[in-house]
């Protein structure tokens, strides 16, 4: 068997030596029936790259908005506030301590931090100004309650036990605020998805028409292949393979450019973040694409390449039907 | 080998441009297809080459009724027919070698297996020097010979040539005719569409003459 293989190799090498090399080529097996570097092909790759860039930037932006909205909702939903108003005849510090114990005893609560008198006064400064003595005023005191990620606290039971055991206590689970924000976040997500859908549709349509345009110059090739007896599937495959490569090349260029643009935008926005922006980031979460955003960009590149390839196949089949 | 029976063809709702064509093309036969310009010679060649379907009548090709065949079966039948187009139809981005090898390539053969055959044929038609040239640098006669080489490389049973001497001088026309006669002697049926009377007078062969849409056969 080894001897047979060696003989076959020797025969192959001898045959190769007998033949002149193609000018400008080292190998002979890379002759493409569909021309690789025509003007139409390069123009199509450019259109695909530009449209992929726009679609990817849109999807990246939408992914950031959706990620931030979800992060904000999750963060806010993990916090509750217990407010204790001073009540005549009761020691407010003792009430705070009791409320703290009740909160920590509730399943799902990981932290219950009471704001000191000074901290409570500072919270009022933006409205009342500094330098005022608030000792004589009945300033309510706050306990910030943090809930474990994914845990659900029985707020009704906690509210009931606070009302029963702690004088002047009330529980605010931010429900109405969360519901309002949830509505805003949902609207932002729906709007983003709508814009993304429109951009994607425009991309698919423009790539389809650009492919049809590029295919028009290849009609003579389709006809000659048909006349020399090539089957429909053979001709379609030649073009589909070529246009898939063009789509992947253009799509990858556009997708990589979009990712670089988004990463750069993220970095630059972080670099120039002032106090107000940092505060907004603390409340709204960080503006980041996340894994889903990158996956969507990669999927877009694949989709656009597939659209290019399938359109070319469709045009070949249409051309062949017209010849007959 | 080929049988036409009462074949008629019209484009859309227009008048019939080919009417009641009934004739046969026998294996190893040689015939000229002639008639005045616009008589329908190229159209009849397209019917023979299965790129047009008749509006009526029966065409039998290699014992197959062409009306009942699928697109893939027609492609397989087309491999048994070589065609030389009036405008050559060479692909400008492929070398002479790759243009001529195209029918073998679509059969799934690799270059190793057909290199010698193609090079030999190109030498035979006098294009050995231009094996790696692109068609735009070839002269009209060289393109014509490359187109003929492509038509015969897969050893077709039938060769159709549309005005093969229309773009060449009388000397080259004579050489091309000799080439077709050689091919016919090696077993290929040949149909040459031409209105060049001088060419037809050089070789005593059957004539199919189209006139007013009808065909007249002179054996």
How does this structure look, described?
- Chain A has 324 residues and is of the alpha+beta class.
- Chain A has ten helices and four strands; from the N terminus they run H-H-E-H-E-H-E-H-E-H-H-H-H-H.
- Chain A has a four-stranded antiparallel sheet.
- In chain A, helix 2 crosses helix 8 (232-271), helix 2 runs antiparallel to helix 10 and helix 7 packs across helix 10 (290-323).
- The model of chain A has no long low-confidence stretch (mean pLDDT 80).
- Chain B has 219 residues and is of the alpha/beta class.
- Chain B folds into two domains: 2-80 and 156-218, P-loop containing nucleotide triphosphate hydrolases (Rossmann fold, 3-Layer(aba) Sandwich); 92-146, no CATH class.
- Chain B contains seven helices and ten strands.
- In chain B, the strands form two sheets. Chain B has a six-stranded mixed sheet, sandwiched between helices. Chain B has a four-stranded antiparallel sheet with strand order 2-1-4-5, with no helix packed on it.
- The model of chain B has no long low-confidence stretch (mean pLDDT 91).
- The interface between A and B is medium-sized, with 29 and 34 residues.
